[in-house]
Design goal:
The chain has about 220 residues and is of the alpha+beta class. It contains six helices and six strands; from the N terminus they run αββββαββαααα. It has one domain. A six-stranded antiparallel β-sheet has the order 4-3-2-1-5-6, with helices on one face. The longest helix is centred in the last third of the chain and has 29 residues.
Length: about 220
């Protein structure tokens, strides 16, 4: 068993080191829950997500607050390529990317790139650079998907009737772009699709989302 683990590490770690590049986005908004999260993505689509719940008053939060999340994730190869392509186009995020306009506060996003070809970071609420703003929106939507997956796991364990409403929200969010990279929560969707103990509507919606995750 130990030998197999060492063999896996010997294969996986050099591949990660060879890629030698990472993009990270840190998000913070004390009025939301989670109030802070970090999403890390590597060129092969692997990555990690970590979030901390807010200390904001309960009345300002969703009925089902996502638990703290700390897990490895995987986005599609196409999405990862778009992330790193934007980093290349925008000089590894080096420079000022905040618009300094009087717009509604959406949360601070800090984009960072580190790799053998350069490094940089910039922080913004709303960016004056359309490509960076679009990337920020997409990464926030991926985080939203991961957090929805965590909520679904909580509901499956503690409130199965609540799954119906939450799946309605997830389908709507996936349709309008607020939730992206459904593949990051494939595990919980598969559990819901195969669980005879949840409503049939929930199982059907899980299968719809799983099909979209493969597109």
């Amino acid at each position: 068993m130990a030998a197999a683990a060492l063999g896996f590490a010997a294969f996986w770690l050099p591949a990660r080191a060879e890629a030698g590049a990472v993009v990270q986005v840190e998000f913070s908004n004390l009025g939301l829950s989670p109030s802070h999260w970090t999403l890390t993505i590597y060129p092969d689509g692997s990555g990690h997500f970590h979030s901390l719940r807010s200390k904001a008053p309960v009345e300002s939060l969703q009925a089902i607050d996502a638990p703290d999340v700390d897990r490895d994730i995987r986005v599609s190869a196409e999405f990862a390529e778009r992330v790193f392509q934007t980093a290349r186009h925008r000089n590894w995020f080096a420079g000022d990317c905040e618009s300094h306009l009087k717009v509604a506060f959406q949360g601070w996003k800090k984009l960072s790139y580190s790799g053998p070809d350069g490094q940089g970071s910039c922080e913004f609420n709303y960016s004056k650079d359309k490509e960076i703003q679009t990337l920020g929106d997409s990464l926030v939507a991926v985080a939203g998907t991961i957090l929805e997956g965590a909520r679904l796991e909580t509901l499956l364990q503690h409130d199965r009737l609540g799954l119906d409403k939450e799946m309605d929200y997830l389908l709507e969010a996936e349709h309008d772009g607020r939730a992206q990279q459904i593949c990051t929560i494939r595990g919980i969707l598969e559990r819901l699709a195969e669980d005879p103990g949840v409503m049939e509507r929930v199982r059907k919606r899980a299968n719809v989302l799983l099909a979209r995750a493969e597109e």
